[in-house]
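Lab notebook, design round three. We kept the backbone fixed and only want residue identities now. Task for the bench partner: fill in a sequence for the structure below.
Input structure tokens:
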């Protein structure tokens, strides 16, 4: 690890939070500032790249770091922590040989064409996770889920829902549980056949019941291969924004001369299409078209009269990909999107868009009990001008009318996706806590900050790690307790 020493008045950048964490820990957290809430009970899981280098060689994209699960269990006034890598073939082999052995979204195997020819990118299982149907899964949209034991984070193996996920099918990192049915809805990019122009793109859509059985699959044909990372879920519909970030010619990727990242472009000539799918039939029922752009992550969605209302983080380019290709570049900036609200009239076919929040932001979360229903509060990680804005350095509580509470972290501290955790005696939408993992660049260590969700001005409790946690992607909170304190 090489971290430059900082002068007395120099603010550290976010880049120390991208250094590897090669160690795997299991301990009770004892360095605590403030009062740990007694009505916070359950487990907070997070997933993301735990290492960006192997044998001193950097991966070619942030998306290629090996998946590392972190778990915090809250029980009887104590907090247990554990982190563990997903034992994918990529992780096992590269750990053994201490070198890059697999291609990735933006990584090539050293050795040129002969090393990369006809070799598909590996699945690092590094983006998100879900606990549903009694299975705990690490997710990455470039492959199948990987099952782990939630009690000790040990890897069970690749998971295919009893073979229902066919060899060619991939599974998104952003599935969603439908609260009324308890079913898990997910999707993946696919091919529906071949024509004179080559492969015909499609979305494979999946429905998994409460027992963890895949009961329904469908294909919806598309015009091109969009970078479709997430979707919105209302009570009766799944809504996919097919944006202007698209995959170009994939032949150089197959041949081995270029990476997928090299071939992903923002094409301003391609309008954004909004595909509405009926949850009962998993069939397309309506398609809207709007200005070029893309939505990377969605907040909540609900239905009001004839309209579907969708919250999303809008992007008008993909310049962020240049930073993601070279995460240790001190000039790189990890930006976000712009919080917009879309209104789709399912009867007339009209649509309108509203700006919701003025700060650059990403990673929208909310009380998941309100998924698909009208909610009044969304939480986001945001970028605030405070002299150290190379990464997300603030959080916001955004209300349905666009008003907000915004909190900036101290310069040199960098945040993450804020996760809502309902209190064990919750009686309302905002009755709970906001969990935010923060990297302290001054001490090269991380901490879990716990805020009252109804007042995020200052944390009620800070749990300090003796080490850092690399910046991660997504997490979730469950009231089930898996780790023993």
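Proposed sequence:
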């Amino acid at each position: 690890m090489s971290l430059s020493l900082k002068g007395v008045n120099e603010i550290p950048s976010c880049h120390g939070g991208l250094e590897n964490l090669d160690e795997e820990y299991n301990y009770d957290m004892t360095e605590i500032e403030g009062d740990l809430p007694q009505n916070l009970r359950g487990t907070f899981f997070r997933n993301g790249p735990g290492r960006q280098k192997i044998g001193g060689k950097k991966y070619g994209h942030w998306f290629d770091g090996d998946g590392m699960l972190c778990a915090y269990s809250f029980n009887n006034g104590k907090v247990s922590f554990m982190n563990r890598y997903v034992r994918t073939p990529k992780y096992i082999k590269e750990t053994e040989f201490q070198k890059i052995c697999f291609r990735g979204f933006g990584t090539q195997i050293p050795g040129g064409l002969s090393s990369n020819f006809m070799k598909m990118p590996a699945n690092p299982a590094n983006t998100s996770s879900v606990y549903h149907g009694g299975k705990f899964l690490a997710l990455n949209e470039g492959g199948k889920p990987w099952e782990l034991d939630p009690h000790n984070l040990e890897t069970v193996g690749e998971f295919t829902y009893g073979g229902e996920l066919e060899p060619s099918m991939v599974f998104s990192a952003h599935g969603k549980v439908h609260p009324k049915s308890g079913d898990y809805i997910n999707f993946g990019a696919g091919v529906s056949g071949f024509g004179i122009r080559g492969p015909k793109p499609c979305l494979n859509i999946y429905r998994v019941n409460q027992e963890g059985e895949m009961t329904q699959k469908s294909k919806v044909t598309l015009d091109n291969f969009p970078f479709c990372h997430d979707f919105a879920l209302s009570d009766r519909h799944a809504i996919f924004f097919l944006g202007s970030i698209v995959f170009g010619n994939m032949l150089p990727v197959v041949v081995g001369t270029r990476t997928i990242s090299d071939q992903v472009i923002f094409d301003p000539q391609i309008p954004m299409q909004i595909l509405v799918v009926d949850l009962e039939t998993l069939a397309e029922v309506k398609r809207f078209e709007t200005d070029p752009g893309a939505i990377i992550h969605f907040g909540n969605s609900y239905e009001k009269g004839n309209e579907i209302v969708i919250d999303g983080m809008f992007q008008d380019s993909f310049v962020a990909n240049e930073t993601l290709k070279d995460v240790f570049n001190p000039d790189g900036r990890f930006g976000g999107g712009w919080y917009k609200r879309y209104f789709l009239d399912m009867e007339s076919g009209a649509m309108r868009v509203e700006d919701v929040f003025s700060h650059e932001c990403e990673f929208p979360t909310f009380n998941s009990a309100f998924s698909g229903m009208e909610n009044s509060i969304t939480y986001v990680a945001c970028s605030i001008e405070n002299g150290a804005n190379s990464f997300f350095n603030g959080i916001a509580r955004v209300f349905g009318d666009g008003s907000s509470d915004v909190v900036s972290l101290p310069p040199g501290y960098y945040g993450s996706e804020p996760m809502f955790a309902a209190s064990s005696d919750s009686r309302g939408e905002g009755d709970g806590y906001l969990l935010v993992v923060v990297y302290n660049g001054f001490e090269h260590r991380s901490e879990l900050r716990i805020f009252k969700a109804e007042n995020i001005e200052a944390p009620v409790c800070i749990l300090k790690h003796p080490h850092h946690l690399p910046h991660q992607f997504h997490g979730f909170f469950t009231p089930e307790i898996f780790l023993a304190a």
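Keep this in mind before ordering anything: The helical segments are 89-97, 113-116, 251-255, 260-263, 320-325.
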